[in-house]
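Hi support team,

I've been running sequence recovery on a batch of backbones for a student project. Most finish fine, but this one hangs at about 90% for roughly twenty minutes before it completes. I'm not sure whether the input is malformed or the queue is just slow. I've pasted the structure tokens below so you can try to reproduce it. Let me know if you need the job ID as well.

Thanks,
M.K.
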């Protein structure tokens, strides 16, 4: 086995990389040692019921069916992967079979903490993850009627996200993998949001476009193939989900469901053209996003109408509630209009790079918003693309998307070998709080961007391309 530590960077471990494997690869846990990686790309820090046969999304006691996918469209290769997600404010785990069957999904929400702090408080979020992670993972296994011995691998989000929170999930994943001699797959959070659409839409093949919108991210990418993306646009400051959350907080809405759903619900009562907000970045001929200025416009409009956030909307007078609803509706319209304008340009760019694209994926927490879906469906349709949105329960952070993305990479040999059963207390875990997904499209660079580059990991795309290049060299030299 050849080990590369410094050719690319000591900090860019994309876990392990096997040599190219045949399409019929069947890597069960008990077969693992028969398929050891020829190349390992490792940083110094990495080294309750019957089995559910229905495809379902479960959160607490609520279960909603997913669109059914023909099992014949995807070979059931016998793989079973546990996915763990703790990048922000939800502790999630799920078990997914290789044919896309969701055996279980468990999510422990931090809604009460969100309401208490008016948003995510990293230290409190970490403590909440630590309290429930063991229970969440065990419940996911119990609901699937499986034990760790039945798993083929463990997948876990290693970035981007809050470092304190990511660490909880990675520690748990490594404990499980180490105790049961399981390979482990590190997952990029935003790639997982994009790829979960392939679990529910069997026609979705590469290349495709993806708009990923959440509390911390606004990214539009062209997905060339698994692990390789061109970033057409990103946020220069705040993401749309952050703008929804702040607007909800300032309007005195119930934050226990997060800000997005609260604003969307109130907006139904308002006049979306009553408050004249300016659309961000109208004069920027790129595909980047900015919501900091729109947030400021909303705050000033709230102050002008003397709306008191300490007075909840449920206690507001009729006139006050109408004012809040008008602001919510006007904000939502302009926030989404900004998405529309940038998406239109991005689609044009993407079609020049990959004329064969047929789908546009919209995923991430904000993709649960029905107004967002409706408006972007019109944009996609006008460009002869089919819009693909995962069900709302798979748009917000969840373990299913992590398990599925782990499955996709595991099949092509991208994983780490089992970690030690016991690791030292001072072990340096491979977590990547700031981890780009794709390589930036030259035409999409913007002078408005002022992102700090310190402690940013090389993009997932650059890591995988580097590993593929190294694999080709190795095969040539053999």
């Amino acid at each position: 086995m050849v080990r590369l530590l410094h050719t690319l960077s000591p900090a860019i471990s994309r876990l392990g990389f096997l040599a190219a494997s045949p399409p019929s690869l069947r890597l069960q846990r008990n077969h693992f040692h028969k398929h050891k990686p020829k190349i390992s790309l490792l940083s110094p820090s990495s080294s309750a019921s019957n089995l559910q046969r229905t495809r379902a999304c479960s959160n607490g006691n609520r279960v909603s069916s997913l669109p059914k996918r023909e099992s014949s469209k995807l070979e059931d290769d016998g793989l079973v992967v546990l996915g763990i997600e703790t990048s922000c404010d939800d502790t999630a785990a799920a078990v997914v079979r290789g044919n896309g069957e969701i055996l279980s999904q468990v999510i422990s929400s931090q809604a009460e903490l969100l309401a208490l702090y008016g948003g995510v408080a990293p230290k409190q979020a970490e403590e909440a993850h630590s309290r429930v992670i063991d229970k969440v993972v065990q419940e996911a296994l119990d609901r699937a009627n499986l034990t760790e011995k039945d798993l083929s691998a463990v997948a876990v989000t290693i970035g981007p996200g809050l470092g304190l929170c990511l660490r909880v999930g990675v520690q748990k994943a490594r404990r499980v993998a180490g105790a049961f001699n399981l390979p482990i797959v590190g997952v990029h959070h935003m790639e997982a949001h994009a790829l979960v659409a392939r679990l529910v839409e069997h026609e979705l093949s590469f290349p495709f476009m993806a708009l990923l919108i959440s509390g911390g991210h606004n990214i539009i990418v062209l997905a060339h193939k698994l692990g390789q993306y061109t970033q057409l646009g990103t946020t220069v400051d705040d993401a749309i989900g952050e703008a929804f959350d702040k607007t909800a907080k300032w309007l005195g809405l119930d934050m226990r469901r997060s800000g997005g759903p609260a604003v969307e619900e109130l907006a139904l009562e308002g006049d979306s053209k009553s408050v004249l907000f300016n659309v961000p970045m109208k004069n920027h001929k790129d595909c980047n996003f900015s919501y900091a200025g729109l947030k400021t416009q909303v705050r000033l409009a709230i102050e002008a109408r003397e709306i008191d956030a300490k007075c909840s909307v449920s206690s507001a007078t009729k006139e006050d509630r109408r004012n809040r609803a008008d602001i919510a509706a006007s904000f939502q319209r302009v926030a989404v209009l900004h998405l529309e304008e940038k998406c239109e340009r991005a689609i044009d760019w993407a079609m020049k790079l990959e004329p064969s694209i047929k789908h546009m994926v919209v995923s991430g927490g904000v993709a649960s918003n029905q107004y967002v879906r409706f408006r972007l469906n019109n944009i996609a349709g006008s460009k002869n693309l089919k819009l693909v949105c995962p069900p709302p329960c798979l748009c917000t952070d969840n373990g299913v998307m992590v398990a599925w993305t782990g499955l996709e990479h595991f099949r092509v040999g991208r994983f780490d070998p089992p970690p030690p059963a016991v690791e030292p207390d001072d072990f340096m875990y491979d977590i990547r709080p700031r981890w780009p997904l794709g390589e930036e499209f030259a035409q999409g660079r913007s002078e408005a961007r002022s992102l700090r580059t310190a402690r940013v990991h090389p993009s997932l795309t650059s890591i995988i391309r580097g590993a593929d290049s190294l694999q080709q060299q190795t095969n040539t030299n053999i």
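--
Follow-up from support: It reproduced on our side and the slowdown came from queue contention, not your input. The chain has twelve helices and 16 strands. No action needed from you.
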